[in-house]
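About this split. The held-out portion is used to measure sequence recovery: a designer receives only the structure tokens and must propose an amino acid at every position. Recovery is the fraction of positions where the proposal matches the reference. Here is one held-out target exactly as it appears in the evaluation file.
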């Protein structure tokens, strides 16, 4: 083989080796960048997982609180319903008793001469039942 051909082949091999070394260095740099990105994403993932867990815990606490509030409201409604039923029973019982006319109260409004529209009014107030309650 001639020296020129050997020189050309050696030069070509040196270029290829330098290209390979350059490619390996570039791939290592990209690998480091990708590993840094993976580490950042894993950190974000762990942080979001912690946030989700906190939100789930808060949701559970709020759900328990809501259930407690609903139970308290239901108890209050039951108590009010019982009290109203008791009042209605008392009113119905008092409505069934004969009305004592001696207990009636008469209201009279004096006629004012300066008020042309005013008229003398007399009303008797009689206890009324609350049948619609």
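Reference sequence for scoring:
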């Amino acid at each position: 083989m001639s020296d020129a051909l050997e020189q050309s082949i050696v030069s070509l091999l040196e270029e290829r080796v330098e290209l390979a070394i350059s490619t390996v260095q570039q791939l290592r740099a990209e690998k480091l960048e990708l590993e840094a990105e993976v580490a950042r994403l894993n950190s974000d993932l762990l942080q979001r997982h912690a946030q989700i867990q906190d939100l789930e815990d808060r949701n559970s606490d709020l759900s328990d609180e809501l259930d407690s509030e609903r139970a308290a409201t239901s108890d209050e409604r039951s108590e009010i319903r019982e009290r109203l039923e008791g009042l209605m029973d008392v009113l119905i019982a008092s409505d069934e008793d004969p009305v004592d006319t001696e207990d009636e109260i008469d209201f009279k409004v004096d006629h004012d001469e300066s008020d042309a529209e005013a008229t003398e009014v007399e009303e008797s107030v009689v206890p009324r039942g609350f049948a619609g309650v």
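Annotator remark: Helices lie at 3-96.
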